[in-house]
């Protein structure tokens, strides 16, 4: 399974957030998209997931064009973002039940509690989200994103504000997605974490791809240079 | 069936959130009661009979209260970015719109019932006419208000003007609804025969169904980037 973005162009008014970016992610691979703030990373994720219709270029899954308007594509993807996307006034179980129902996946109490147990959060089931810490909420958000066993998991700055326990649980979940043959696309401005987790790294800067390669072959120092320098300098 | 289930799930979730937070409904109720109280003082009831004006006041109160509530329909969705996750599920944009509008409609019904009762009380109206006829007029009117408010409530989220934009966008469009609704309600208060009311009710239904259809069709344009 492959997910490709070809010649992706996205603009916000006169500002070009993505300027002809080509990117590819494959099964059994964690792709990290890194870059400084405002580089266009989140726009790239939104273009790939179909949340934002690109002004140019296309997104292909196994060679077929997909878009956000296609509900079969939306059924195959999951998202974890720095904003948890949970309803504070609902309990953890109610949140999971709601999203599982929308996706038409099993949603019995036992199934949902078992899903929470995978991140060590089954005891949080009856608690309202507003009573949880940031790390606990993010664990629940991770469970929510995996309820339907998505083929492609997008993560948009998921480590922001996460405690070490939560970060470790998230890293474990990403590795297990990779082992299960799924595609993982991780957007982060945290270069060291991106390098640690990812198999491949794409560095985006000022809306352009300035590096695309295996995370472990390229020295961290070189990547840092791509990360911080302009494309012409790199 | 799937679409109906999605609509039900979204509406039920919105009502549960409203029940637990209560912010929007409470502010709408407070507005209705205070408006009725003020109208009772603003009108010289020795010269103006309450029965002559209560229909118009009821419709204006429901309009203002529902518009104030419409600005907050998407608050819970934006609080922690939940709407982004709903839009990434396979649920159709039309079902999202209809689910949100259905929950909004339930709140507007509560407001309409309270508005009708409180205004009749404050204006000293003793025989308001057939309650069934009032309900038959208010039903399509409130559906039109709920659909319009939900659509423009979302649209105003994208604007820097926010809630200020909402009445500017909705009030001109709602002129026919208020006109048909207030005229039909006034005729019910005057206990005119249904044949003199039914034409206006049909126009209200046309407005309501048109608002639903257009809102459901265009909703993706105010949700998708």
Please outline what is shown here.
The complex is a heterodimer of chains A (234) and B (225). By secondary structure, chain A is an alpha/beta fold.
Task: Please tag this protein with its features.
heterodimer, A: 234 residues, alpha/beta, Rossmann fold, 2 domains, 6-stranded mixed beta sheet, 4-stranded antiparallel beta sheet, 10 strands, B: 225 residues, 79% helix
Show the helix and strand layout.
The complex is a heterodimer of chains A (234) and B (225).
Chain A: E1 2-12, E2 15-26, E3 29-34, H1 41-49, E4 56-61, E5 64-66, H2 71-74, E6 77-81, H3 92-103, H4 109-117, H5 134-146, E7 152-156, H6 164-179, E8 183-188, H7 191-197, E9 200-205, E10 208-214, H8 220-228
Parallel strand pairs in A: 3-8, 3-9, 6-7, 7-8
Antiparallel strand pairs in A: 1-2, 1-4, 4-5, 9-10
Helix pairs in contact in A: 5-6
Chain B: H1 2-21, H2 23-42, H3 50-70, H4 75-79, H5 82-87, H6 93-122, H7 131-155, H8 165-189, H9 198-223
Helix pairs in contact in B: 1-6, 2-3, 2-6, 3-6, 3-7, 3-8, 6-7, 6-9, 7-8, 7-9, 8-9
Textual characterization of the structure:
The complex is a heterodimer of chains A (234) and B (225). Chain A is 34% helix and 29% strand. Chain A is α/β, with parallel strands linked by helices and 234 residues long. Chain A has two domains: 1-76 and 150-234, Rossmann fold; 85-149. In chain A, strands 6-7-8-3-9-10 form a six-stranded mixed beta sheet, with helices on both faces. In chain A, strands 2-1-4-5 form a four-stranded antiparallel beta sheet, covered by helices on one side. In chain A, α5 (134-146) packs parallel to α6. Chain A is globular, with a radius of gyration of 18 Å. The mean pLDDT of chain A is 89. Chain B has 225 residues and is an all-alpha fold. Chain B contains nine helices and no strands. Chain B has helices at 2-21, 23-42, 50-70, 75-79, 82-87, 93-122, 131-155, 165-189, 198-223. The A-B interface holds A 46, 49, 51-53, 68-69, 71-72, 74-75, 77-79, 81, 83-90, 94, 98-99, 101-104, 129, 137, 144 and B 2, 5-6, 9, 13, 16-17, 20-21, 76, 79-82, 84-92, 220, 224-225.
